Amino acid sequence: MDCFDPNDDHPFAKVLYTDDGYVTSLYDALTEDGILVAQVGEASEIDDPADENGDFENRSTMIKMLDEIGFK
Fold first, then answer.
1. How crowded is residue 48: how many other Cβ atoms within 10 Å of its Cβ?
2. pLDDT per position as a tens digit, 12-24
3. pTM of the prediction?
4. Are 28 and 20 in contact (CB under 8 A)?
5. Which of 67, 71, 62 is nearest to 4 (CA)?
6. How many CA within 13 A on the CB side of residue 29?
């Protein structure tokens, strides 16, 4: 998946990375041995705030959702 960075200031970026229906469809589309590769923005620096509190809130939300859905 490579559409937008999760921290892009674009309404569609938020939908891609935080919509439960969309994220669930990614999981459902894969076979048992399937692999999801996703662009999740630039790497954090040591002095950056936690993703949940900074510019990468969408990335944090997506990672939590993927875990809850069943990605390992």
1. 13
2. 777 777 888 888 9
3. 0.70
4. no
5. 62
6. 9
